[in-house]
């Protein structure tokens, strides 16, 4: 693995696995997939969703790696190096 962020990613548990709290806060229930920050456990919706809360969390926090919290998926993504792991 060439990405140091993926190699050193944390293992914070997702705050939820059933909804995007940021979408719920603005009255939206139409997220596509959920992603969880491995630094702090924040859960946000994916880039296929209208609000793209997972990416917005990276942009505001600088936390580099998220993972899918979708059933059967175990991949991670580094926003900094744009690498999957």
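^ Assign residues to that structure.
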């Amino acid at each position: 693995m060439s990405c140091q962020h993926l190699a050193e990613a944390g293992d914070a548990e997702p705050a939820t696995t059933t909804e995007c709290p940021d979408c719920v806060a603005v009255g939206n229930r139409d997220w596509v997939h959920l992603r969880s920050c491995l630094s702090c456990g924040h859960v946000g919706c994916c880039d296929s969703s209208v609000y793209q809360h997972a990416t917005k969390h990276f942009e505001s926090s600088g936390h580099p790696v998220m993972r899918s919290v979708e059933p059967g998926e175990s991949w991670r993504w580094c926003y900094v190096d744009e690498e999957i792991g």
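The helical segments are 4-7, 21-25, 53-61.
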